[in-house]
Write a structure and sequence with these properties.
heterodimer; A: 595 residues; alpha/beta; Rossmann fold; Collagenase (Catalytic Domain); 6-stranded mixed beta sheet; 5-stranded mixed beta sheet; 16 helices; B: 411 residues; mainly alpha; 18 helices
Chain lengths: 595, 411
């Protein structure tokens, strides 16, 4: 490179050269024409450098930093913008009570609930449903004209449609002859039946009522775990999410909030929730589920898994599709042996069972030989393994607990399927869908706990509702903290580029975070989750923008290494020739002045 | 008459040699087509064939030309076409030589101008140059560009500036970089025009005319491409974008590919700008310094392009080596011919070997091949610099005849 460049400016120099034969003889002076030409040549190189090179340099090395609403992002991360609240709407149906009586009961129950509740972010709001005796009870909650006890008069009815989802319906029914009230939760609907003793129903004038207290306690019990989880999520977001505090104002509001939530969580519960949270999977918009059949022998070699999945598993996946999407595939592996580190099952003659040691459970999955690939689909993979032991070693259970299924944190679940009865021999080669059913039910439970659903209450719709709320909350917090981290990164690293895509992702995130927060306030939890999901995806997209990350590891001193080859061979001849030329001009001017 | 017979013999023997190579060794064209020294991503014949279906990477106007050829006759007809192109180039060289521009231009006449090769010898040096033959067999599209450049020069020295500008427009349309030849070619056209007329025409007016003809020619070709590609402008990015942005880093004999493989992503654009400015930076200075000999400016620029352009191949070198024999009279003034020729031979022989070691044998790495392309470029730049020196010394001896034959020392 240098060679070519040198050829230009230097060519003029040998004009003043002399031959060695008469070295002492001074060379004739350069002609003014050649001096002028040389000046023009140097000028032409410098013109290219200054007129084209300089703009190119400025244009190509300038870092494009899109404007980000830093303060808003930090406010979100600090929890200043949004204090998530979870107002749960509970409808009380009291078909056998007079309306004023019922309203009074509701009011008193609400008071009792408010007294019981320590955690203000998550509270239950009661309202009275007007229902008619003639209606089918089963549908009463669906078709009733609702009287807005908590919110307002009937005039708002039109626009409250869909504004809040009902978390639970409490149906009060008198139960003549019983001594105490009792409550019964329907396991497949969101209904709590309360059977009360007739004389417990309060009169309008009384200020306290055992029935009201009973209902309040029951409700509190039902939602205790959810409250604990929500409190836990909010608390851990407060303690973990702000490691990089930029704004020295370590927001007194959040500190106060933290101490308050600390108070509301006893350490034992917190520890339990901790272990639950580590078990559950990190949120992903899509999970892949692999259901595998492993057997140490040649049978069963087929299973009616498609039918079984369609009947027992897909309905669950459909009902949680609002939280995440799932893709499912299945596989069968015959002659699947244990890994050598696992002790082979031992026979317990007393109980006539084969047992596995509990400490071997973690090594039960033979990762080396069983084809359980860590990631097949778009998202993280959950593995559900159905293990059918050999006839000679069945029934096979875990020693001690005698359980036949267990969870592997962050990975999946295992069920050992022992042939239940003698007629299994009839159809040994094929597992019928009926025999897979219990395993699939276990898998469903395991799936729910992987997603972070609570164990109580025992009603699936309620669990799913809870899941919706806690997912919305955790996504809201995680997207907010991602925003905070992004803001922090952009402030801390002034040399990284911020492309427009990041700025638009941030705008989308903040917009959806706002909608999430509003939806949570108004009790529209499905809506909140939907917005929170978009916010999370956009936040991640913005934070992990590829063109931004590349520059992070490029310190300024590396730039010297990049520019040095340029400054050396190209810069030196250019600068030297320019200096020489300028000196000549100066000298000739000085010589011209006196003369 | 004598000249014509010699010309006929030369052309027929050159064509016969190529025919033999094409048809007696049927695998040779395909082999050479795949060589990185001959085919770059922008000029590869293989890609041209693909482009017949995909319409990318090559300037679109070439595609209909090849699309006219029936597939069954594709191979022999393209062979014929490339042989014809070589002969056309040789014909152009003969005309340039006969114009005598290299020995005596309007503003400068070399004292050595009689020591020259005749036009047939210059054409023979082109036609029997192994680089030219390999290029012809390898069929890269750069042959079209080379031919257009040679014809632009021919038209200029024949006093037809308008056709010269149109042809340069075609060359620039095909490969972009010939546009840098515009300033020296304008000087050349102007000089020839001024020599033929008694009073020199107005410089600014002629320049403006030439530039507008050149731009009109390019605009016309671009318009034609747009019509042929169905009104889409996407070919612009996929043809000229490739030259400017270097997205394809397939190894070639040039210096760009390795540099941009190693370059940090964030500085890629900056160094693309630097490399292109480096390529263009010589134009102005050479035109100023060698104002008296614009044809030599063009020759030197062709040499610089063969070294520093984004996707160089030996076809660019063969073009430079085609122009160099016009300056036979300065050869005695060159100081490092042996060194330069030895370097080039060395690189020519070792280049394919190192490429084989890297790509096929796996016993070498990219540095092997890059090192040899550096040697190749060193040899070429040696020739460029040395010939430049020789021409300047030739000029200087006109100024100071007493220094003739004496050594030069920088003081």
């Amino acid at each position: 490179m240098a060679q070519g460049i040198d050829a230009g400016p230097e060519d003029a120099n040998f004009k003043v050269a002399s031959s060695p034969a008469n070295a002492q003889k001074q060379p004739p002076p350069e002609s003014p024409k050649s001096i002028k030409t040389r000046g023009f040549v140097i000028l032409s190189f410098w013109a290219v450098v200054l007129l084209l090179g300089l703009p190119v340099w400025l244009w190509t090395t300038s870092i494009h930093r899109a404007r980000l609403p830093l303060q808003h992002m930090l406010d979100w991360a600090d929890g200043k913008t949004c204090k998530p609240t979870f107002p749960l709407q509970i409808t009380i149906e009291a078909p056998f009570l007079q309306e004023p009586e019922a309203a009074h009961l509701v009011r008193m129950t609400q008071h009792a609930l408010d007294d019981l509740n320590e955690f203000s972010a998550h509270h239950l709001r009661l309202r009275l449903a007007k229902s008619f005796l003639s209606r089918d009870f089963q549908n009463a909650s669906m078709t009733s004209i609702e009287d807005e006890y908590a919110i307002g008069p009937l005039t708002q009815f039109g626009n409250t449609d869909g504004l809040d989802e009902e978390a639970l319906t409490v149906r009060l029914q008198p139960q003549p002859g019983a001594q105490t009230a009792r409550a019964e939760l329907q396991s497949h609907s969101t209904r709590l039946d309360v059977f009360y003793v007739s004389h417990q129903s309060p009169s309008v004038s009384s200020s306290s009522s055992t029935l009201a207290t009973f209902i309040a306690t029951k409700l509190q019990e039902l939602f205790a775990e959810e409250q604990a989880i929500v409190a836990y999520i909010l608390q851990s977001a407060q303690t973990m999410g702000h490691a990089p505090q930029i704004s020295s104002s370590a927001s007194s509001a959040s500190r106060e909030f933290r101490s308050r939530s600390h108070r509301s969580l006893n350490p034992e519960l917190a520890a339990r929730l901790d272990s639950r949270m580590t078990r559950s999977l990190k949120y992903a918009p899509t999970y892949h589920i692999t259901v595998s059949l492993f057997t140490p022998s040649a049978a069963p070699s087929s299973w009616e898994i498609e039918l079984a999945l369609a009947e027992y598993f897909t309905p669950l996946l459909d009902s949680i599709s609002g939280v995440s999407n799932f893709t499912v595939d299945t596989q069968v592996q015959l002659y699947a042996t244990f890994s050598p580190s696992v002790h082979s099952p031992e026979y317990d003659a007393e109980q006539q069972i084969w047992t596995l040691r509990e400490e071997d459970l973690s090594g039960f999955i033979n990762a080396a030989e069983w084809p359980l690939s860590p990631s097949i689909g778009a998202g993280p993979t959950l593995n559900f393994v159905l293990y059918v032991p050999d006839r000679s070693t069945s029934p096979l259970v875990v020693r001690g607990s005698q359980a036949s299924s267990w969870l592997i944190p962050q990975w999946g679940g295992v069920v050992i399927l022992n042939p239940q009865n003698a007629n299994a021999t009839l159809n040994e080669a094929t597992l019928l869908k009926e025999s897979i059913q219990p395993a699939l039910l276990t898998f469903s439970h395991q799936l729910l706990s992987f997603l972070g659903a609570p164990q109580t209450p025992p009603s699936l719709p309620l669990q799913l509702q809870t899941l919706t709320r806690i997912r919305a909350a955790s996504l809201l917090l995680s997207a907010s903290s991602t925003m905070g981290s992004l803001a922090w990164v952009t402030v801390a690293l002034p040399s990284i580029a911020i492309p427009e895509t990041v700025s638009s992702a941030v705008d989308t995130t903040l917009g959806h975070l706002r909608s999430t927060c509003e939806a949570l306030k108004e009790g529209r939890f499905k809506d909140a989750l939907e917005n929170a999901r978009i916010a999370e995806i956009q936040a991640e997209k913005g934070f992990f923008e590829k063109s931004m990350v590349g520059q992070v590891y490029f310190p300024d001193e590396h730039k010297v290494a990049v520019y040095l080859p340029l400054l050396g061979p190209v810069g030196v001849p250019l600068v030297m020739s320019a200096l020489k030329e300028l000196r000549r001009l100066w000298a000739s001017r000085k010589a011209g002045q006196p003369g | 008459m004598v000249i014509d017979r010699r010309k006929a013999i030369l052309f027929s023997s050159a064509a016969a040699l190529r025919f033999i190579l094409f048809f007696a060794f049927p695998s040779l064209p395909d082999l050479l087509t795949g060589r990185v020294e001959i085919s770059t991503p922008v000029t590869s014949f293989k890609r041209l064939q693909e482009g017949l279906f995909l319409y990318t990477h090559n300037a679109p106007l070439l595609l209909p030309l090849f699309a006219l050829v029936p597939p069954s006759l594709f191979s022999p007809l393209t062979a014929l076409l490339y042989i014809l192109l070589d002969l056309l180039c040789a014909n152009a060289l003969i005309k340039i030589t006969e114009s005598g521009e290299s020995g005596s231009s309007r503003l400068f006449t070399s004292p050595r101008k009689d020591m020259k090769w005749d036009s047939i010898a210059v054409a023979a040096a082109y036609l029997f140059n192994p680089f030219t033959i390999a290029t012809c067999i390898g069929r890269p599209t750069s042959v079209f560009t080379n031919c257009a450049i040679l014809y632009a020069i021919t038209q200029a020295v024949s006093g037809k500036p308008i056709t010269s500008m149109l042809t340069l427009g075609l060359a620039s349309y095909l490969s972009l970089y010939p546009a840098l030849l515009l300033p020296p070619l304008i000087l050349l056209c102007y000089d020839r025009k001024a020599r033929d007329t008694k009073t020199p025409p107005a410089a600014t007016f002629s320049t403006a005319t030439f530039v507008s003809v050149f731009s009109a020619s390019i605009a016309w070709f671009l318009y034609l491409s747009k019509v042929l590609t169905g009104g889409s402008s996407e070919y612009l990015a996929s043809t000229y974008g490739v030259h400017l942005l270097l997205p394809d880093l397939t190894p070639n004999v040039g210096l760009w590919w390795y540099f941009f493989i190693e370059m940090f992503d964030s500085f890629r654009e900056f160094f693309l700008g630097v490399f292109w400015l480096h390529l263009g930076g010589y134009v102005g200075a050479l035109c100023i310094r060698l104002r008296t000999q614009p044809l030599f400016v063009i020759t030197t620029l062709l040499g610089i392009f063969a070294i520093f352009k984004p996707y160089p191949s030996i076809s660019d070198t063969s073009l430079y080596f085609a122009m160099l024999p016009l300056y036979r009279h300065i050869f005695p003034l060159m100081r490092y011919t042996f060194f330069a020729m030895a370097t080039i031979l060395y690189a020519t022989l070792l280049g394919p070997a190192f490429y084989y070691l890297w790509i096929y044998a796996g016993s070498g790495n990219a540095n092997f091949f890059y090192a040899i392309t550096l040697v190749w470029s060193l040899g070429l730049s040696e020739i460029v610099a040395d010939s430049l020196f020789a021409v300047l010394r030739d000029e200087w001896e006109v100024e100071r005849p007493e220094m003739k034959g004496k050594d030069i020392r920088q003081i």
